[in-house]
Amino acid sequence: MASRIEDYGMIGDCETAALVSRMGSIDWLCFPRFDSPACFASLLGTDENGHWSITPRLPVLDVRRAYVEDTLVLETEFVTEGGRAAIFDFMPPRDGSSNLVRIIEGRQGEVEFDIDLVMRFDYGRSVPWVTHDASGRLTAVAGPDRLTLQSPVDLKGEDFHSKGSVVVSEGQRIAFTLTHSPSHEPVPVAQDPEATLQQTVLFWQEFVSRCPSVNSYTETVKRSLITLKAMTYLPTGGIVASVTTSLPEALGGPRNWDYRYCWLRDATMTLMAFMDLGYLDEAAAWREWLMRAVAGTPEQMQIMYGVGGERHLPEWEVDWLAGYEGSQPVRVGNAAAGQFQLDIYGEVADALAQARRHGLPPHPRSASLAGVLLPFLEKVWREPDEGIWEVRSGRAHFTHSKVMAWVAFDRASRLAEEFGGEAEAVRRWRQVADEIHADVCSNGYDEELGSFVQSYGSKVLDASLLQIPLVGFLPPDDPRVVSTVEAIERRLIRDGLVLRYETEVADDGLPSGEGAFLVCSFWLCDALVLLGRYADAKRFYEKLVGLCNDVGLLSEEYDPVAGRMLGNFPQAFSHIGLISTALNLARIEGPAEERSLPVEGP
Ligand SMILES: OC[C@H]1O[C@H](O[C@H]2O[C@H](CO)[C@@H](O)[C@H](O)[C@H]2O)[C@H](O)[C@@H](O)[C@@H]1O
Predict the structure, then answer these.
(1) DSSP secondary structure letter of residue 87
(2) For the GH15-like domain, which residue ranges apply (predicted)?
């Protein structure tokens, strides 16, 4: 049975990731890529859908978890009546093969562990053929996939499970390596698990060593940085929004989506966080990914792609999985890939402009990309779209979308000005930006409410409007900004956290009700910083940090009444918020200040 979302820790190798429960069960793993079919899917079903547990036989008196310092190596220590032992779970950076390693370490007395390995390919459905050989190697094959387990413990087949037990004494270490390989290829040569542990620790520690100090927030920022890095697909530079699919935004409901893809919006925000911390290699790799992914005509540019740049991401329902705590359907693929969302042009323009300011040399294709995208956007910005929240109720004139279209032209004009572009480009793009600015100010602001609104003519508030001062559309002391922030504080804060909008009032095509979308609370903190309300922002930020689980991870949403995490986990958006608000509060190259470059006004 799946644990609470906050009871999971993530391990990964920058190509895929697994979730490990507090009780030592790996309940989610897709091999070989983030978006491959899961071979452990009990997170979204039952134990029979695949998992691998190594759990003390006696009642567990205490569990303590932490990542080995500055790494993604998860250490879970169990205390039982007879002793104390820990499990190190990790996925070594790939060196030709894809491995998951688990090392049990006896620390005091003796602890007996029960092992239950249930391999089910194809999202928990395909039962493989399992064979054991004399060397203690177990091999499972179904269709294109093969898993090979190097195990010092003899596992016996029982009802399509591989089971065994082992007693670990103080000072003893027992290692298991699970390797994925295509079933038609030779079985990869086994690696030394202790050596891969050292390599994995070094890989992460070297990565984190470049992180600057962010005052008292440094540890939180480092953990978020590692989490975001784990969501980057190393071979291509693509970045996934999360490593899971279909963890529900409301328990028992249908708001369950597949986030194992690369959204231009989520990825550019991740990129900003990387760049703000000085991680320019990741930014350069993503820019390469972007240029390959969007190559072609501007009409065909998508809002999201597969990690390799794939465009076809058909959404389908996995009807054999019961869903997390019965939340159905479980979806694979994402129909939002076919939506029109105006804001992505602004997100991409902003990220590319920031990349230049951070010292990245111009990309040989940047100018030609801008040369086709901006004229396209000039033609379409007046069209309705599905917006940042990817509504499934049809298109509208979302205020946030228009603001981000303004960002695209504003940044294009500034970039041309700063880096010696053509005077005609500076003038033309500024003119379109001014036109959009005027349109938003006359149609997106409701005098009666004293607030910008979700879409032209509506009375609905939306947390995305907090981006208005953050991207520099209007200065923070503009009365319309101040009153919009105050209106959001009055109407969208529920039980201390910010909703993205009221699902009871705004029709998004789905049944109403969801948790608080966490990145929105970080945006409010950022807006409060800009408004000069530092104490409020700091208090709020500390509350948000307090929502992280014991190993520093946040999901997409939170139910403050039930005190539970909701939505896909861990989610890039939430960790971007943890980083950028910390930077704002710490006043180290604050991205909120930096993104809101001075503007001429409406
Ligand atoms: O609310 C309906 C939509 O929900 C998902 O979108 C959300 O996640 C995206 C990835 O983090 C994010 O970019 C977007 O802003 C969020 O609203 C889902 O992916 C959509 O298919 C769905 O329509």
Answers:
(1) E
(2) 217-582
Residue 261: CB within 6 Å of ligand 1? no
User: Alpha-carbon Rg of the chain, whole angstroms?
Assistant: 24
Residues 214-233: pLDDT tens digits?
999 999 999 999 999 999 99
Nearest atom (ligand 1) to Cα of 388: 15
**Does the beta carbon of 256 sit less than 6 angstroms from any atom of ligand 1?**
no
Q: Do 222 and 188 have their domain in common?
A: no
- Ligand 1 centroid – CA 94 distance (Å): 30
Encode pLDDT of 490-548 as tens digits: 999 999 999 999 888 888 999 998 999 999 999 999 999 999 999 999 999 999 999 99
Whether residue 14 is contained in a domain is answered as yes
Point out the domain boundary residue: 205, 227, 246: 205
Residue 295 CA, ligand 1 centroid: distance in Å: 24
Residues contacting residue 250 through CB under 8 Å, at least 6 positions apart: 327, 513, 514, 515, 566
Q: Using CA atoms, how far apart are residues 80 and 110, in angstroms rounded to an integer?
A: 9
The CATH code of the domain that includes 573 is 1.50.10.10
Residue 602 lies in a domain: no
Distance 391 CA to ligand 1 centre (A): 8
Domain interval for residue 223: 214-595
C-alpha to C-alpha distance for 282 and 571, rounded to whole angstroms? 18
Q: What's 31's domain CATH number?
A: 2.70.98.40
Complex ipTM, two decimals? 0.94
